[in-house]
Amino acid sequence: MTVGANGRAKDLAELLKGLDVQVDGDLQGVTITAITADSRKAGPGVLFVAISGLRVDGHQFVAQAEAKGCAAVLVEQGLTEFVQGSSPVVRVMVADTRLALGEVAAAFYDHPVRRLQMIAITGTNGKTTTSYLLEEVLVAAGARPGVIGTVNYRFAGREIAAPFTTPEPVQLQKLLWEMAEEQVSHVVMEVSSHALAQKRLQGVFFDVALFTNLSRDHLDFHGDMESYFKAKQLLFQAHLKKEAVAVILQDGAKDDCEVTGEGYWGRRLARNLADTHSWRAAKGKIVTCGLGADNDIFPVSHSGGLGGIEAEITLPGGSMQLKTQMVGGYNLKNILGCLGVGTVLGLDVDKMASGLAQFRGVPGRLERVSRVDGASPTVFVDYAHTPDALENVLSTLRALTPARLIVIFGCGGDRDRGKRPLMGEVAGRLADVVLVTSDNPRSEAPEEILTEIEAGLQGVARMRGEALLSHRRLRGYDIIVSRREAIRVGVQGAAAGDVVLVSGKGHECYQLDRAGKKFFDDRVEARNSLAVIYH
N or C: which end of the chain has fewer CB within 10 A? Predict the structure, then answer.
């Protein structure tokens, strides 16, 4: 049996066990050494899986994959018009190649989730911060965690760049197998709505799943909030192990049933699960967290400022005295979600408290890039790129009573256009000075994106940024297409006592426009502008 470059070789018939398939050809003796959905990577020993994508249908490349000598192709039964004539290559037909790809990839890597404690985090905001928090408390408890998320994939001292929040099935299963081989005990995984809708998690099952929140985002892909919610709900309906527990962050009034209500989506998910027979039958399958005392985990009291958060938190069977350097009410909610998962995993309360006390923050999530000296403005970089996230972070910073609150932000191109005026409205309502600038315009003209954001700044005066910032009592906005120039104007025009938020890109170290991808890091740009002030 020939072994592939990754050291693996599997009998095709074994990989297909449990799947409803039709086979054209002889499976006997067909060995698979790699799996791909990219016809360019097809070749001897490779199973090519034809996926119908948003822009390209992989079935159009079946002949190309076969010509390159792949061992077998996996196609959908309803798309056989692309698979005509005889071929020495084994053709396997299934109802849904996306589902089959996940199952085959899991089998190829010996179902690594069976060797791991799997933790999923889904929601619009807070996934990345909560993944870092969980990593910290797991380490404090003596575990060996691995993390799969937006910033990177990391385990056993390794860091791998993250092209997707949730990897494609083959990469995901390979990553999980590598983690299991490195004796990782727990995997903390950010689960995106795209991944759930595109069936990338087929063959992956979790012991604990956390729902953080839901607010407007990705409607260019999902169409509406209802479809977005149903994609998130799939995690709890189709990807949990038999004894799994759902942890749900929920806020707002207990009887809140309006879609516009703060706690609607979390409470709706909890109700939906509680109404399902399989969830009703098992006590303790749902743990709720939130600021309200009707939750299983909630703060009895809490306070905070630029120095961090202090709180007394009630947990099932006990309480915790929390002290952390994290800032803001929404980060308190992230902590509550982390504690919910930790409680389900049976982590020691004191060790969780110790881990949270040691936590130093997340790259690009309300990351301070200025000195703490009182002689210069305080500058934060954050990833907030939805109306809800921007409102959360601006409200948090407003509560710190800065002399002026200055925000620099934009919206990504080729994405949900409806959120642009909404983000403009949030910025104009909560900040003193708004500098609207480019984010990742992609294929769109930056000026057109900025005009759509400007529509939300009704009733706010526009004037040149430098003039606006030089008069400390003025409120208003300016549009500066160049993100580098906007950051320079905002940071260098700020004074001691001011707080500057550079929002939208966070940890990203690139900018995408019609010319392609180029290096750009908000933190670097902010520090360069601050250096002028310091010197």
Answer: C
